[in-house]
Amino acid sequence: MTRRTFRGKVLPAGLTIGPVTLWLVFFVAVPLLYALVMSVCSIDGSYNIVYRFTAENYRRLLDASYMQIYGQSIFIAFLTTIICIVLAYPFSFLIARAAGRKKALLYMLVIIPFWTNSLIRIYGWKTFLGTGGWLNEALLALHVINAPVDFLFTRAATVLGMVYCLFPFMVLPLYTSIEKLDGTLLEASADLGATRAATFARVVLPLTAGGIFSGSIMVFIPCLGYFFVSNILGGGNSDVIGNLIERQFGKGNNWPLGAALSIVLIAITLLLVKLYQRCGGDMESFGA
Amino acid sequence: MEREKVIVELKNVNKVYGGSNHVVRDLNLEVYEGEFLTLLGSSGCGKTTTLRMIAGFEEPTGGTITVEGESVSEKEPFERDVNTVFQSYALFPHMTVFDNVAYGLRMKKTAKGEIKERVMHMLELVQLGGFERRYPSQLSGGQKQRVAIARALINRPKVLLLDEPLGALDLKLRKQMQMELKRLQRKLNITFIYVTHDQEEALTMSDRIAIMNEGVLEQVGTPTEIYEAPATRFVATFIGETNLFEGCVKETSAHHVSVVVESGELRCRAQGFEKGEMVAISVRPERMKYSAEPVEGYSVRARVKETVYVGSVLKAIVVLPNGNEIKIERLAGQKLPPDGEVYIYWDNGDGKLLHLMDQVFYRTIESVKLA
Amino acid sequence: MKRNTRAAAGRGVGILYCTLIYLFLFLPITVVVSNSFNASTSKPYLTWKGFTLAWYGRIFENGPLLESFGNTILLAVISTLLATVVGTLAAVGMYRYKFRGKSAIDALLYIPVVIPEIVLGISLLTLFANVRIQRGMISLILAHTTFSIPYVIFNVRARLDGYDSSIEEASMDLGAGRLQTFLHITLPVLAPGIGGGALLAFTLSLDDVIVSYFTNGQTMTFPLKVWASIKSGVAPDVNALSTLILLGTIALVVLTQSGIVKKKRG
Predict the structure, then answer these.
(1) Of B113 and C7, which is predicted with more confidence?
(2) Does C243 reside within a domain?
(3) C261 touching B, CB under 8 A?
(4) Which residues in chain C have their CB less than 8 angstroms from residue A167's CB?
(5) DSSP states of B24-65 as a string?
């Protein structure tokens, strides 16, 4: 039977599909199941995990202090997504419509900064924004301010860091969808009497909505987990869900609670992805 | 005439996909050495699957395929002495024309000098001398086609399989390539099995045509046989234009068969039919005749509806009492029927009598019974 | 006339806008690079004390830093290799075969891509803790390969979109066996996709903080080293090494890209 499907083909199915199946099952499906199981366990006095069912972790997730952080995390993610869309859309439009060779170069220039370690870059921002940083020095020299201002450890600083880290994830899908846009459609729309604004609203925006959707997913979801950004720039004043999880696996040493928090993140992710698919979103665009 | 040597033979070949999709049914076919055989049929009739089974890309679900008397069913494509020209050309995009054509020889570990000589000779043969350093992306459709042919011929296969090789070319180039392929086949004396859905292509190029319909081989014969003496209703309607009269055999004699149709009586020369059998008569438009008076054995009257001039041919459409339209064709300068009513007839030999209970029909009954 | 000036003005605004965005993107890097030349020797190494190349020399005296860098490279190379092999085979198989459970594999493939990295990190941590896989280089390699595989598959799959599988049939038809066909036809034609996927996997691994943070055990990678030193102020030799890594990556990408571009002509 296998021989029959193999005929005329280069590689047998088992050799191609086998390794990836094993890998994904063992290193994606099983770990997630482990996390799910752990989320309904508890710990004893010496931080050992007790494998007995309890809903206690999930009950704790409803604490007001946690609720406040979910709200803050979702707010930060939302704000980051909106800022990314607003900044990236015209930018993507401009680079996607540039001439051949220039286009490739401009695109590369977006990617290059991301070949430096993300922590180093966030640290760069910290240096830039801090009291002894370039920004303060410049503002002092220009007499805009009289004494150094600490821009760090604010929600704004965290949002800035998030926007910075996730900006290319918005540019990539937007760039792709704008590049695919057929230029003659714009001409046809103008030809039929539409103003630039009308062409944008009725032709360009609907046709690039897919890019905005997938970009938003790729910005919003990681934003909930990027604990290092809020840690370095927010200094504990603007924690995201990721910080809560990190704490339970670090200092808090309460893995079951951390696992439960992760399940919440997974639930949010699934919800958003389902919504995305419902709106006609294509999963393939996440791979770009 | 001396019986030719059979080079490829298909015996009771069946191909079923996914347990229920029966794409080739009980196919029996002999291909003679050195002939140009065309598998003709509309898309989805099983012709390409048949070709792919001969090439070894698909395995028959049942039956055997032999090449030179030796069963190849168990052989992988790379173990068979047949080569294929693919519909999409399937040129290796990362290799030059030279490397593409040389590929088969390299796989056979042919000596370098010989490879060079044979490739260059082959490229000359397909009129691509000087193109050996080009990449496929730098060639026109017709040139790619020539490379694909050269590549498939380089190993001097016993049989060359061609899967709609001219399908992607424009009409003018296609006509030119038809001639060239024919010339090449004559010159190299290699058996060609050629798949196409283009009946004109099949009629002009082939020594014999095998017509397939819904996985069944309907008829195998020379172009003339296929056109002049279609064996089934499908063949009659598939090849060229025809007029069909369905009816019932009234009486048979040594000279002719009389058939009762809805609008009267018709006859033609045929054997092997029984009284009372459901039949169809197929008559080509150019063989149709008409007369103001009834002709013996023919009593169908028709009303002339319109006449059309199509360049070198004149066409008339006449309507039978039951509303069916019949086409009559004449070369320019000949006469068409005048307005009014006429009797239609033909020379007995020009009407082809067909069994209506053909295989397609049987299958329909079968499936109805199953349902 | 009026239309021309308006278009020119529009273009000017566009160029200005793009420039500002690029400034935003390159600003922290400029900080890092310039700090790597800063002669300041006291924490937090912020005030400009003049130009020096000394930090570049100091990299080679900083044993733990060099070791973490070595680990990072080793980790990136091995996980990229693994992910490229598994991912390429998978992409080819999923393109060529229909089988039950294909959509399940497809769904599993998207999980590491869409879920926040921290979730992948902690679930791998729970796995490694439970099945007693020693946390260290091995667990890091397994973890990095896991998040790299989907990207390799997506890249190769994109290449397969325009792939005519009859070229494989043509190869076998001309007498090439399976292995020969794979080596002479499949691999070279898919090479740009495989290379792109591998490059992406390599840079992802090089930069990863979150997944490594949970799965490293005692093994330090360069990003984790940075993480550990951030509270007290990152030493300029780390900036210097970051600058070198950036240059190295640019060189690598320029080399492979130009190689790919040349191959594509075929």
Answers:
(1) B113
(2) yes
(3) no
(4) 25
(5) EEEEEEEEETT-EEEEE--TTSSHHHHHHHHHTSS--SEEEE
Domain map (residue ranges) of chain B: 6-228, 241-370
CATH of the domain at A74: 1.10.3720.10
Q: Is the dihedral of CA C104, C106, C107, C111 positive or negative?
A: positive
Asked if B95 and C266 come within 8 Å (Cβ–Cβ), the reply is yes
- Write out chain B residues lying below 8 Å of C173, CB-based: 55-57, 77-78, 82-84, 152
Instruction: Report yes or no on A34 lying in a domain.
Output: no
pLDDT over 70 (residue B284): yes
Nearest alpha-carbon partner for C211 in A42, A124, A249, A72: A249
A101 in contact with B at a CB cutoff of 8 Å?
Answer: no
Distance of residue A182 Cα from the nearest chain B Cα, in angstroms:
24
Q: Do B107 and C180 touch (CB under 8 A)?
A: yes
pLDDT for the residue B3: 58
Size of interface A-B (CB pairs under 8 A): 12
CA distance C189 to B246: 57
Max mean pLDDT range (A176-185, B284-293, C142-151): C142-151
Other C-beta atoms closer than 10 Å to the C-beta of C78 total: 17
Burial of A233 (0-12, 13-18, 19+ CB in 10 A): buried
Interface mutation target, options C122, C135, C144, chain A, most CBs of A under 10 Å:
C122
Which candidate, B269, B348, B261, places its Cα nearest to that of B301?
B261
* Segment B148-159 mean pLDDT: 93
Radius of gyration of chain B (CA): 25
Q: How far is C262 from chain B (nearest CA, A)?
A: 11
Model confidence over A21-51: pLDDT tens digits? Answer: 999 999 999 999 999 999 999 988 888 888 8
**Whole-number Å distance between alpha carbons of A143 and A204:** 44
- Residue B253 CA to residue B270 CA, distance in Å, equals 9
Q: Report which residue type is found at C14.
A: G
What residues are paired with B304 via a beta bridge?
B318
Tell me chain C's radius of gyration from C-alpha atoms: 23
**Given CB atoms, is C187 within the 8 Å cutoff of chain B?**
no
Percentage of residues of chain C with pLDDT beyond 90: 58
CATH architecture of B241-370: Beta Barrel (2.40)
pLDDT at A148: 85
- Number of domains, chain C: 1
Answer yes or no: is A131 within a domain.
yes
**Mean pLDDT to the nearest integer, A132-146:** 85
Q: Judge whether A2 lies within some domain.
A: no
Q: Which residues of C touch A165 (CB under 8 A)?
A: none
Q: Which region among A105-109, A166-170, C80-84 has the lowest average model confidence (pLDDT)?
A: A105-109
Q: Flag if B103 and C265 touch (Cβ within 8 Å).
A: no
**Topology, domain B6-228:** Rossmann fold (3.40.50)
Beta carbons of C127 and A91 less than 8 Å apart:
no
CB contact residues (below 8 A), chain C span 31-50, against chain B? none
Query: Number of CB pairs < 8 Å for B and C?
Result: 70
Rounded to two decimals, the ipTM of the complex is 0.90
Q: Do residues C69 and C241 touch, judged by C-beta distance below 8 A?
A: yes
What are chain C's partners, defined as 3 or more CB pairs within 8 angstroms? A, B
The answer to the question of residue A32 being in a domain is no
> Residue C136: which domain range?
67-264
Q: Nearest 5°: CA angle at A237, between A234 and A242?
A: 70
pLDDT one-digit tens code per residue, A215-237: 999 999 999 999 999 999 998 88
Nearest by Cα to C222 from C2, C113, C66 = C66
Q: Note the pLDDT of residue B133.
A: 95
**Type of residue at A220:** F
CA of C79, closest CA in chain A: separation in Å? 13
